[in-house]
């Protein structure tokens, strides 16, 4: 087995890396869309579930990774026993499946940054161009390849000279770019309407169950909780690193980036739209529509629009890239645990990502299908980490994995409430709601695995991966030995 031979050289390096892991494209395109849909009321459940879902799972990931020094498969085998390696397999495959299409998102961001810098965004019909670009095959494939190449080069250089050095520079720069965009947005005429809407707390909205499920889902997907990413980075944490403190910083840093992104986007949309109705329509135009159609259109109507379009897409690219490298490292770490060298592991992961990600680069339907299936799969991954605490036992987990310096009497009670009661309920609520949504979308063909967002396509793809994990569980364990 290839043991971890590197460690982060400083706490700042580890914190920057874990915050970069958490911050991704979802902070910049999905969070503002949901905040725009529900107004400031959305912030309440979103923030609440940071502490009731995301941070508890981040703490569990960090604890297991730091103690076992294995990637997801080996970590579940070490923590729960050989019979449970398949759970780590599912977590690893789920996040790697997201890597296969997330490189496409990173490529889109890079392409639009290049267009913004060159001034092209000011001269095109954005809706028509987005349709043309995503159907052009060669351009999305090319930028998909470039994104993989950049990420692979960083991972190839290792933890200290690659990931840590990159994160120390890029993550602070990402926050600076978001702040610059937010300051510019807030100086626009009419921005106060968007600002007021963003922080308008209508308590009646909290009576709708959807806002709670959306807030929980956004926190679960945005922070990276349950993905296995923080577990992977914790392998390289120094012995004196504090588990709870670093987990809190990762979650809080993610939410801070989301708030700043909201301040940059929502006031801009309100200030530059012809009416409040037009602003609301723009914010509801979907993740890709908001980022690649609505926002570029609006930048054309503001002073120095090309400059701020460049700032926006550079921030989006950095956010996507910082998450992309964490996914590549997760996949690479799995191969390191099976005895491959970093050089061979990076090469294999890069080739597989290039090939398996190609369909998502050339087909939005395929992209959306994979985003749907494996985005929901992350809920199951989160449940497996919850199950790990249940199987080990809350008190044993705190004593042997968390090892807190201060262990008050209420800490085991809190863990039991969170992991024995609340997190399982949250998992069931989210999973049932999203799958029921898919049945509503396809009332006559919900079972059809060829439908983009169907119940059938989700269960089929999950079943194949789970079955493979169960069948090859012993083989995984043998390879790890």
From TrEMBL:
Alphabetical list of InterPro entries matching this protein: Na/ntran_symport (IPR000175), SNS_sf (IPR037272), YocR/YhdH-like (IPR047218)
Location of the protein in the cell: Membrane
SUPFAM superfamilies, A to Z: SNF-like
Topology in the lipid bilayer: Multi-pass membrane protein
Key word Transmembrane helix present: yes
Pfam families (alphabetical): SNF
GO (cellular component) term, any one: membrane
Protein name: Sodium-dependent transporter
Tagged with keyword Transport: yes
Keywords recorded for this protein, A-Z: Membrane, Transmembrane, Transmembrane helix, Transport
Residues that span the membrane, as ranges: 12-31, 43-64, 84-104, 141-159, 171-191, 211-236, 248-272, 306-325, 345-366, 372-392, 413-436, 452-472
């Amino acid at each position: 087995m290839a043991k971890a031979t590197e460690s982060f050289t400083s706490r700042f390096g580890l914190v920057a890396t874990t915050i970069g892991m958490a911050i991704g494209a979802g902070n910049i395109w999905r969070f503002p869309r949901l905040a725009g849909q529900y107004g400031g009321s959305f912030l309440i459940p979103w923030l609440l579930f940071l502490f009731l879902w995301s941070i508890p799972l981040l703490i569990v990931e960090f604890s297991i990774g730091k103690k076992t020094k294995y990637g997801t498969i080996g970590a579940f085998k070490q923590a729960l026993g050989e019979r449970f390696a398949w759970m780590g397999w599912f977590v690893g495959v789920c996040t790697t499946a997201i890597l296969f299409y997330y490189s496409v998102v990173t490529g889109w961001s890079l392409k639009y940054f290049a267009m913004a810098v060159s001034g092209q965004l000011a001269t095109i019909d954005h809706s028509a161009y987005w349709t043309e670009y995503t159907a052009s095959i060669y351009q999305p494939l090319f930028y998909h390849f470039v994104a993989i190449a950049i990420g692979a080069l960083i991972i190839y250089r290792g933890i200290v000279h690659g990931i840590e050095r990159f994160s120390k520079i890029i993550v602070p720069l990402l926050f600076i770019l978001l702040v610059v965009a937010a300051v510019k947005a807030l100086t626009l005429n009419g921005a106060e309407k968007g600002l007021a809407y963003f922080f308008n707390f209508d308590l009646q909205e909290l009576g709708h169950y959807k806002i709670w499920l959306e807030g929980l889902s956004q926190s679960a997907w945005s922070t990276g909780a349950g993905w296995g990413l923080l577990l992977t980075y914790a392998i390289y944490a120094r012995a004196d690193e504090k588990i709870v403190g670093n987990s809190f910083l990762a979650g809080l840093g993610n939410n801070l980036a989301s708030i700043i992104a909201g301040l940059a986007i929502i006031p801009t949309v309100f200030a530059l739209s012809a009416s409040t109705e037009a602003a609301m329509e723009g914010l509801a135009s979907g993740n890709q529509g908001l980022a690649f159609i609505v926002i570029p259109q609006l930048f054309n109507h503001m002073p120095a629009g090309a400059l701020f379009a460049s700032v926006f897409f550079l921030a989006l690219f950095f956010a996507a890239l910082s998450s992309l490298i964490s996914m590549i490292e997760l996949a690479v770490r799995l191969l390191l645990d099976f005895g491959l060298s970093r050089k061979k592991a990076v090469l294999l992961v890069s080739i597989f990502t290039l090939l398996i990600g190609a369909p998502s680069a050339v087909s939005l339907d395929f992209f959306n299908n994979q985003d749907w299936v494996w985005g929901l799969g992350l809920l199951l991954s989160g449940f497996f980490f919850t199950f790990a605490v249940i199987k080990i036992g809350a008190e044993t987990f705190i004593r042997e994995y968390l090892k807190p310096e201060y262990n008050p009497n209420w800490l085991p009670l809190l863990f039991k409430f969170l992991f024995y009661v609340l997190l399982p309920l949250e998992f069931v609520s989210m999973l049932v709601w999203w799958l029921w949504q898919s049945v509503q979308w396809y009332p006559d063909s919900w079972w059809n695995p060829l439908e983009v967002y169907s119940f059938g396509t989700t269960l089929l793809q999950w079943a194949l991966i789970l079955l493979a994990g169960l069948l090859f569980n012993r083989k995984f364990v043998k390879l790890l030995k």
